[in-house]
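Figure S4 source data
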Amino acid sequence: MNYILETINLNKSYVSSVETLTVFEDLNFSLDKGKSLFLFGPSGCGKSTFLNMITGLDDPDSGNVLIDNKKLNSLNSSKFLKNDIGIIFQDHYLLSELNVNDNLMIKHEDINQLDFLLNFLDISDIKFKFPHQISNGQKQRVCVARSLMNKPKLIIADEPTSYLDKTNSDKVIELLINYSNEFNTSLVVSSHDIFYKKYFNFSYTIENMNLKKC
């Protein structure tokens, strides 16, 4: 098997004083290396929960997540995030006191990769600018660059276009797809905008506590 990502009998529920909300039940899923997945659905359907579990940011109640055939757990998740996974959040989370160059270097100190990504993403002209000096579209491209600084095997993007206009949204999706194709990097992107599913190898939605092709 040539999977970069696999979930085995994954279960996740949230318990409150009023009710138990089951989000996933016996979720079995796999993604081949170098392939791209589009995860579609409205806010609150479980997309972020799924992404948080496959990155180790949230633990399942039971079941396993495998990254490149290695089991992911709370003890080794930071190692995976450092070496194998690149994450793009909905918000940019750039450090306001650092310029673009330094925001990227704290992820991974590789000046050649940094300069390559700034050129690849067409933001080399803002290398020494601070977050308050650049646009939302530029901030999100910086986030894309940050997620790729460690040359990850798997890129996870949670609603990466949610705060962008159509032009910048198109650019971010195009850049992610181009990078995935050029470097054979696996890609998982969640979105509430089904327009972008045509660019991905596979597309899924969340239905009946499981993933369903759409």
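Figure S5 source data
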Amino acid sequence: MKSPNRLTPVVFGTMTIVILSVFPVINLLQLICCMNAVLGGVVAAKVFEKELKKVNQKFEYKDGIIMGILTGVLSAVIVTAASQSIFLFSSENPIIEMTAMFEQMNMQITPEMNEIINRLSNEYSDHGFSPTLAIAELVSRLISHSLFAVIGAVIYISIINKKKGNELPTTTPQV
């Protein structure tokens, strides 16, 4: 049996998430329940559905979950790299700007928080970016992009199966 192409759906889903995450104004979709990742999962699922039709296979939830995870992981790496590269080319230290904003809002900064801010600021001064924040951003994007891309793919599968009238059976464990 011929297996479907999994790379093309992942690339299309990833491109969708990256475009919706990187460009200003469009990236406001992230504020609506990570809609960028949900739409990326839907795109990956739609393209994978076409690949499955070529090899005459049924679209199952596990396929959508796999597409969502792969799309989410790849997009998280690319979007993190893009956002961190912006810091590399910027001459400003964003931590100093953030501290100034805290002062304008009359926020009280604890000594512990001030120590962390100074450490992050020193990372920006030394490297041009903060490895600590880059890793934190990557981890958070890996989780959120993968989770919401899976949700988008599963929603798409549910919708197309209801339209076709062939709801996928759910198995209940036998006791």
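The two ends are 35 Å apart (CA to CA). Residues 15 and 75 are 7 Å apart (CA to CA).
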